[in-house]
Amino acid sequence: MTTTQAYERRSTHRTRASILTLLAAVAAGELIWLIAALGHIDMTIPQAGQTVGPASVAAVALVGGGLAWALRAVLQRAGRGLRAWTITGTIVLVLSLAAPVLSGATGATLFVCEAMHVAVGLTLLIGLHRAGRLGPARLMNA
């Protein structure tokens, strides 16, 4: 196997792992939403004039995951690596926990929204970090 073939193979594994991570993040958010729905928790945020539904959960997880993936790729190509990405991702996750509070969610709705943020965020942090380790940086050790 040539170096180019090895690089392409690792790149394909990294892409596949990243896509699976995005799907797992969506599933994590949807599972929490489903549990809340089965528990008859009203996911309406009156101050924001919005109801949190499965489509919005999936959309936010996919957009956030796509942005996280893109940032990881940029930082890795710039030579900053996974450590910088993990630190940045952790900061973004912590800051994102303010969004449900600032939107006016209260009580059980606030708890469910925060749980979804944590589940989706941790899934992305762990999964994309592991996928990033499949990249060219490990090619040298192959």
Task: Walk me through the structure.
With about 140 residues, the protein is mainly alpha-helical. It has one domain (about 5-140). It contains five helices and two strands, in the order αββαααα. The protein has a two-stranded antiparallel ribbon. α1 (about 5-40) packs antiparallel against α5, α2 runs antiparallel to α3 and α2 (about 55-75) packs parallel to α5 (about 105-130). It is elongated, with a radius of gyration of 17 Å. It starts with a helix and ends in a 10-residue tail after the last helix. The model is unreliable at about 135-140 (pLDDT under 50).
Give a summary of the structure in a few sentences.
With 142 residues, this protein is mainly alpha-helical. Helix content is 76%, strand content 3%.
Helix and strand layout, with pairings?
Blueprint: H1 3-38, E1 44-45, E2 50-51, H2 54-77, H3 81-96, H4 98-103, H5 107-132
Antiparallel strand pairs: 1-2
Helix pairs in contact: 1-2, 1-5, 2-3, 2-5, 3-5
Total helical elements = 5
Strand order of the largest sheet: 1-2
Strand content bin: under 5%
Classify the helix fraction into a percent range: over 70%
* Average of pLDDT: 87
Structural class, from secondary structure content? mainly alpha
Instruction: Please compute the radius of gyration using only Cα atoms.
Output: 17 Å
Could you give the order of the helices and strands? Answer: HEEHHHH
Oligomeric state of the chains in view: single chain
Largest sheet: 2 strands, antiparallel
List segments where confidence is low: pLDDT < 50 over at least 5 consecutive residues. 137-142
Structurally, how many domains make up the residues? Answer: 1
First and last CA, distance: 11 Å
What would the principal axes of the Cα set say about the shape? elongated
Total beta-strand segments? 2
